[in-house]
Amino acid sequence: MARPRVSEVRSELLLTELLKAQGWDCRRPPNGEMLRQHEYKDHSHLRDVFLHRSKVTMIGHGLPEAVVVDRQSMQPLLVIEAKASVADLDKAVREATTIYGAACIEAGYSPLAVAIAGTSEDDFAVRVFKWDGSAWRVITYEGNPIGWIPNRADADRLRAPSTTSELRPSVPSPEVLATFADEINRLLREANVNDRMRPSVVGACMLALWRSKGAIRKDPEYIIGDINGACEKAFWDAKKPILAKSLHVDEANEKLAVKARRIINILERLNVSVLTAEHDYLGQLYETFFRYAGGNTIGQYFTPRHIASFCADLLGVSIDDVVLDPTCGTGGFLIAAMERVAREHQISRNEMVKLVSTRLIGFDDEPITAALCVANMILRGDGSSSVHRGDAFTAPEFPIGTASVVLMNPPYPHKQTDTPTEAFVERALEGLSQGARLAAIIPLSLLVKSNKSGWRKSILKGNTLEAAIKLPDELFQPYAQPYTVIVYLRKGIPHPKGKRAFFARVENDGFRIRKGVRVACEGSELPKMLDHFRAGKSEPGVSGWAELDEDASFGPGAYIPAREMSGEASDDATQEVIRARTSFVAYHAADLVQLNTENPLDIRAMRKKAWQFETVKPGTVADYFDIFYGQKELHSKDGLLPGRSLVISSSKFDNGCYGLFDFEHILKPPFVTVPGNGSIAYAHVQEWPCGVSDDCMLLLPKEGVPHSMMYVAAAAIRNERWRFSYGRKATPDRIADFPLPHTDELLARVDEYLARAARVEDRMIEDAEDALDSQTARMRLADLGSGRARAVSGAELEVRLAAMMED
């Protein structure tokens, strides 16, 4: 069989790239969705469809380039014909529709007909058609034929004869964008473009493709010059000449001149060159893709667009507002405000553009970031917004007392010389008029640390705290510290005494990490948070309304009422605590058989020293347990020598074990240990005599409390550890009111789990004892042999050892 020509191979590569760009799985069914010509023979219903459908004479066998199918039913969804030359597009259209598409229609199927002409490295063209019951109609966007293959959802909708043939593009999935971003990053790395400059190259390529409508010469001699020229024209058109040179690609980089061709090809697959800004596809694509391509390479932590939108909704941004972002980055908050106004007031994008030139104000002193922000605006049809390259603290254009809304995510300071977050908040407040609103994403530590209490109280003297909403820990990972809170302040109104603010905790923002990428998932709690805030609702474990404490903490963990774990969650969590104990035994079995258990102190005799509470709520930690702090003797462990006494500290690993030391004042178990710092609130159950450092609390069961309740308590405290941080330690008062599930069914199941674990642990201990006896016997025999001044052979040693063990 003759090998396919190079042009045909490149055409197949183009087809695969176009399909993957829209999320199609190009593997063979049942794992994937695409069948190529030589694969039809295994599927008789498809082979019969194309039987006698010759491309030229209509006699014999003719096969389309590929068929995309539903992997369950094997029904054809797309029938595709590809040609290697753009000049053959009409021929590909004719064969895809009147030959292969028609054959499918006659067989009772209703696929889209797709014609592709070109190769993976050169120019290409795409046409897509649907059968409307009487004729093939081309699929269009803004009245022009689309230049991409529809994704699965769009294909399913278009295949119905009664639907419109007009299609608006949608942003590819995060997985698809991440794949392309990885390739672009690899290309830039191979071209020796440093991390800091990569976002500017990507942004420049996107803006240039859009501005030139794809008229970029791809030869290495011209490509970078064409990119820079198109970018400069875009900035001049937007009346931003000061930024025209900021988004600039190094024309002296010969390696990049070669790699840029492939980068442009990738962006063309994502339709950058053929789109208008009217429907904001391009802006969404820019922002979503740029997040993967840019990361933290220019020192910025880009706020996810859905979080920026949530902040705009929380403050109720309206058509009359002037929105300020003193640290605008690539413009995510300004775009969110624009989108909300357009959506809520049902105005067109052109009308929106007229409004935002004076109503969106942003500052960023990093030239590349400021240029990328303006590029983001240009791609949305608005390059004239008041985005300034400048420092919000010194720029003469900074508005004083005029903005009605601030939306911001201040840069997180990494060095003592960096501007602190507090300074950005104070400067933002200066830009607001009286009664105006501010939403800022702030590190949790600033809101809970006692040494920041003075700053918080000073803020409250002139402003009102309306809400504080904790965001998911993984939101900015792996680029930034995980613990962040949205703080909503109203300027110029001192926080009234007795005012109840809204506090909430978002666990699910509609995304989760999979393979290092945050991908969409079901169950976003953001709409619920808005509802709770607007309606004054509370939900244990989720949200609550409360007066501020004496420390003026803004941390939601201090105010949201705890919720009792559900039955299933309790089951899983208690098993996790038991597994931690069993793992500890497995690792330390040899130590446990020699553990110091002599004369442990019975802390039950010291109940008078237990923590005293003014009130105790039924069914809570304080209702079932006395709470003590650990031993001051172990506050510093520097002088401890190795020994046989188990010492527990604040680690979440190894059941809290710090090590085995020469320490006499061990405590009589069982009890629960709860770290107050370190691995805060990572509770464990201790079943062996041990010393406990004073960075832990001890929970001693009260009279009549079942043994299994300790494991339930440890699980419940772990479940609430989100409340704590290095700025807010766990204390007896802060864990006392945690509710403990305590049904008879749950406790019976825990007893069963404990019995099962005990059988496993007993075997481990027995094996360790046997090993220790064997070792002791070997040492005795070795000593005996040495005393007689003769060598004992290995065989003799084994015989004598066996005899001793039988005895």
Strand order of the largest sheet: 11-10-9-12-13-15-14-16-19
CATH superfamily (homologous) name of the largest domain: Vaccinia Virus protein VP39
CATH topology of the largest domain: Rossmann fold
The residue ranges in which pLDDT falls below 50 over 5 or more consecutive positions are 56-61, 295-300, 784-807
**Biggest sheet architecture:** 9 strands, mixed
Tally the structural domains. 5
Bulk shape = globular
Strand content: 15-25%
Helix count, per DSSP? Answer: 23
Explained architecture:
The chain has 807 residues and is of the alpha/beta class. The chain is built from 23 helices and 26 strands. The protein has a nine-stranded mixed beta sheet with strand order 11-10-9-12-13-15-14-16-19, sandwiched between helices. A six-stranded mixed beta sheet has the order 1-2-3-4-5-6, sandwiched between helices. Helix 6 (198-212) packs antiparallel against helix 9 (281-294), helix 10 crosses helix 11 and helix 22 (744-787) crosses helix 23 (794-806). The radius of gyration is 34 Å and the shape is globular.
